[in-house]
Amino acid sequence: MRFVDFLAQVIRIAIPYLFAAAGGVMAEKAGVVSLALEGFMLSGAFAAVLGSFYSGSPWIGLLCGIVAGLLFGLVHAVASIRYRADQIVVGIAINLLVIGITRFFLRLAFDSSSNSPRVAGFSEPAQGNIFLASLSNPLVWAGLLSVPLLTWVMYRTPFGLRIRAVGEHPEAAETLGIRVPRVRYGAVALSGMLAAMGGVYLALDQHQFTDGMTAGRGFIALAAIIFGRWDPARAGIACLLFAAAETLQIQLQGTQAIPSQFVQMIPYVLTIVALAGVVKRSVPPAALGRSAD
Amino acid sequence: MNDPKAPMILMRRIEKSFGPVRANRNASLEVCAGEIHALVGENGAGKSTLMRILAGLYKPDAGIVEVNGQNVAGWSTADAIAANVGMVHQHFMLVPTLTVTENVVLGREPKRGLAIDMARALLEVQELAQQFGLDIDARSCVRDLSVGVSQRVEILKTLFRGARILILDEPTAVLSPPEIQELWKVLRRLRDGGGTIILITHKLDEVMEVSDQITVMRHGETTSRMKTSETTPAEIARAMVGRDVVLESIAPTPPAGELGTAAPRAPLLEVQNLVVAGPNRSRAVDGVTFSIHPGEILGIAGVEGNGQTELIEALAGLRSVSSGTIILGSRDVTLTSVRERSAAGLAHIPEDRQRRGLVLDYSVGDNLILGDQHEFTRGAQLDRQRIASNANTKIQHFDVRPADSMLPVRALSGGNQQKVVIAREMSGGFSVLLASQPTRGVDVGAIEFIHAQLREARTQDKAVLLVSAELSEILALSDRVAVMYGGRIVSIVPRADASKEFLGPLMTGASAA
Q1: ipTM of this complex > 0.90?
Q2: When you count CB atoms within 10 A of the terminal residue's CB, does the N or C end of chain B come out lower?
Q3: Are B203 and B25 in contact, with CB atoms under 8 Å apart?
Q4: Are residues B234 and B285 in the same domain?
C-alpha cells in the first residue's frame, strides 16, 4: 500500500473524530460535559440519510443532519443548563434516546431493522483512488478545517474568550456582566451541530444508515479531547493518531500474523494507554460539570 | 469632586433573606463622593451581602438603592458596571487560565473584525496600569501571579470599566504588611482622583488607618455611623459586638511572664528536612526543619499559599511526604496513618472546618465523635447513649450554642462550628496540637475563647503549632515565630524579637537579615 493511500485512509477515518472532537472541545471548554457526542453523531447520520433519500441531494442531507444535531444539542442544553440536570446523566440519556429514535424511524421510513437503502453522497465509493475520491468530498475539507477554525474561535474571538472564562470560572464571568447560561447554550448548540456533521460524513460516505453506525466514535473523540488536553489543535492531532491506529488495524487484519481479535484491539488499547499516560497532566476546565447558580 | 454633602450612594431599609437567614434587615448606608468609607462588622454581619446588592449581584427583597440620585434597586451587574460601580471580591473573580489582559478585557473586548484586537487590548491595559501606579505584567498568566498582584488585576478590571465607585471586600485578608501599605497608596490615589471607595473589613487598625467615614453593621443591621477622626477602636468594637470587648486579648502583646518559660525538655514534635508536594508544585514544602517543646506555641506567619496548608496536611497525615521525617514524641510517624498519629497524641484543627473539620449535615453529637467513632460502639452498633452524654459534656465545657447535640452542625454559626471542632480535638489526650487558622471567620467572642483554649494547652505542657494568616494572632499567642515563604521557613525567632516591622519583609520574600 502506498503512503498516500494510507494517508488518505487515515484522513477518511479521522473526519468523524475531528468533527466530534471539535464540538466536544467547545462544549467542555464552556463547562458542559460532552458525553452526548455519540448521540449527536448518530442523529446527524440518520437525519442526513433521511434528507438525502427524500431530496436526492447530499446537501439537503447535510442540512438535515446539522438541524438534528442542533435539536439534540438544545435538548442537552435545556436539561443541563436551564434545569441543572446532572450533565453526565443527560449525556447518557441522549445517547440512549437517539439509538431508540433512529431505530424507530428506520423501521417507519425504510421498513428495516438494520439499514437504510442507498442514498446519494458527496463522492462515489472508492473504486479506484480513495485519495482522489476524498479530495472531492466537501465534508473532508470541512472536517480538516474545523480544527484551525475552532482554534481561531477559541483563542481569537470574544465568543471564544467568554467560553473559556465561563468553563473555568463562571462566577468571575458573571460579575463582569457576561450571561453565563447564554454562552453555554451557544457552545452546546454548536457542539451538537459540529458532532452531527461527523455523523453526516459517516453516513454519506457509506451511502446508507446502519443501525448504531457510529459505534463508539463519539467516545473515542472524547478520549481524543482529554488526550489533547482540551486544546483544539492537540485534540485534532489525537484524532489523527487514533485514526492511524485504526487504519493500521485494518491493514494488519489481512496478514494473519496475529489473531485478528488482538489487532482489532489496537485503537482501543492505544486510547487507554494514551489516557493513562497523559491524563495526570491533563487538567479539565475547572467548572466542567458544574451548573452555574 | 462633586458637592461633598450630597451622598453618592444611598441605601435605605434594605432587606435580604436567604431562606431562613436574614442577611440584611433594615440596613442603611450613605457614602459621599471622594471618601474612603469603611463598612465594618463581624463575620456574618451582612456586609458582603449589602455590597453585593449595591454591585448588582443580589436583588434586595425590599429597600431603596440610589446611586447618583437614581433608584437602581435590583439592577444587574451589567447595569452596575455601566453606572461605574465596581467590586473587588474577597475570593478573586479571576480566571486563572487566562492572561492578565484577557481577564481585564473579558466582556468588553476591543475588536478588529470578528476577532479580538489583542495588541490594542494589551496596550490599553498597560497604559491604565501605569496611570494608576499598579505594577502588573499584562502578558502573564493569572495562575502564576501572587495574591497581591492578583488583587491589583481585580482593581484594574474595575478601572478598565470606568469604575468611580470601588467596593473592596476584605482586601487585606490575603496580603502581607508591605502589600497592604501598597494597597492603601493605590486607594488614596484613587480617592484623591475623585473616586469613591467602600472598604469592607473587620480589622480595626485598617479602619483607623485608611478610612474617612465608618458604618458599622451587626446582625444584618447598620448600627452606627461615625467619622474616623472622631472615634476610637474601642468605640467601633463596641458597636460591632454590642458590648465592651477586651481588645487586649486580640492585641499583639504576649501575656507577661509567660515568655521563654519553655524549659529545654525533649521536643514533642520534631520535623526534619520535610519536603511535600502540593497541587501545583512538586516542592510546596521545601525542606522544612523545626521542633516544638512541651509548653510552647510555635506560630507560623506568612502570606497564605506559601506551603502552610501542605505542611499542616503532611503533619496530620492527610498528604504524603516526599522526603524528610516527622517525629511525634519519640516515634517516627512519617509513614503512619491519620488514626495512628491521633493515637500517638496528635490533634488537628483544620484550616477549613467545613471541608475538613466537620460533616455539616451530621448532628453536633456525631461530629464530636468523628475519628473516635470506633470507641463509641456497643457490639456492631453506635452507642447512642454514650454519644449523647459525650456531646453534652463537651457542649457544656466548650460553651457551644445552642446547646443541642441533635442539631445539624450546618445550623450553627461559624464560631460555634469552630468550637465543635475544638471540643473534639482538644478534649482527647493529645500532646501535640496543629491549629490551622483557628479563628478564621469566627466572631470576636469566640476568638477570645479559642485563644484562651490555646493558652490553656500551653499551660498543660502541650506543644502547639499555630498557623494563621492574621499576624496579630501569631504575635498574641506564640512563644516563637517562624516565617514561611515559598515553602521554606526563612526565619525562626523568639516572640520578643518578632515585630510586624521585622516579619513583614520576610513574609514577602526579602531575605533574612
Answers
A1: no
A2: C
A3: no
A4: no
Are B210 and B241 part of one and the same domain? Answer: yes
| Euclidean distance between CA atoms B18 and B14, whole angstroms | 14
Reported confidence tier of residue B511, pLDDT bands at 50, 70, 90: low
Test mutation, A162, A176, A229, chain B, max B CBs within 10 A: A176
The torsion angle over the Cα atoms of residues B111, B115, B121 and B123, rounded to 10 degrees, is -100
Interface contact A162-B98, CB threshold 8 A: no
Q: Do A177 and B81 touch (CB under 8 A)?
A: yes
- Partner B, chain A 175-204, Cβ-Cβ below 8 Å: 175-178
Expressed as residue numbers, the domain containing B389 is 360-427
Query: Measured between CB atoms, does A173 come within 8 Å of chain B?
Result: yes
- Rounded to whole angstroms, what are the CA distances from B121 to B102, B128, B298? 8, 11, 48
Residue of A nearest to B116 (CA): A157
Q: What is the CATH number of the domain that holds B31?
A: 3.40.50.300
Q: Domains in chain A, please, with CATH?
A: 3-281 (1.10.3470)
Instruction: Classify residue B286: in a domain, yes or no.
Output: yes
Relative to beta strand B480-485, strand B21-32 is unpaired
B326 within some domain: yes
Show residues of chain B in contact with A287, CB under 8 Å.
none
Give the total number of structural domains in chain B: 3
Checking if the pLDDT of B445 tops 80, the result is no
| Whether residues B340 and B433 fall in one domain | yes
Q: Is the pLDDT of residue B94 over 80?
A: yes
In this prediction, residue A277 has a pLDDT band, given cuts at 50, 70 and 90, of low
Q: Are residues B311 and B454 in the same domain?
A: yes
Q: Does A29 touch chain B (CB under 8 A)?
A: no
pLDDT bracket for residue A278 (50, 70, 90): low
Say whether both B406 and B279 belong to one domain: no
Q: How far is it, in rounded angstroms, from Cα A225 to Cα B139? A: 27
Q: Between chains, do A158 and B97 touch, taking CB under 8 Å as contact?
A: no
Residues of B in contact with A172 (CB under 8 A): 92-95, 103, 106
Given this model, what pLDDT does residue A280 score?
58
Q: Are residues B335 and B433 in the same domain?
A: yes
Chain B partners within 8 Å of A152 (Cβ): 115
Check CB contact of A171 with chain B, cutoff 8 Å.
yes
Report H helices in chain A: 3-29, 37-55, 58-77, 87-110, 130-135, 138-156, 158-168, 170-175, 180-206, 217-227, 232-253, 260-278
Residue of A nearest to B55 (CA): A175
Which cell is B259 given? 515568655
The one-letter code for the residue type at A155 is Y
How confident is the model at residue A1, as a pLDDT?
60
Query: Any CB–CB contact under 8 A between A152 and chain B?
Result: yes
Record: contact A169-B78, CB cut-off 8 A? no
Q: Which chain A residues are Cβ-neighbours of B109 within 8 angstroms? A: 158, 161
- Is there a single domain that holds both residue B448 and residue B512? yes
Quote the pLDDT of residue A209.
96
Q: Check whether residue B219 and residue B364 sit in a common domain.
A: no
User: B115-116 and B165-169: which strand pairing?
Assistant: unpaired
Q: For residue B252, tell me if it sits in a domain.
A: no
pLDDT in tens, B399-409: 888 888 998 99
* Interface membership of A158 toward B (CB under 8 Å): yes
Percent of chain B with pLDDT over 90: 55
Which among B89, B98, B118 has the least Cβ separation from residue A175? B89
Contact predicate B214/B236, CB 8 Å: yes
What is the structure's pLDDT at A279?
A: 57
**Predicted confidence (pLDDT) at residue B241 exceeds the cutoff of 90:** no
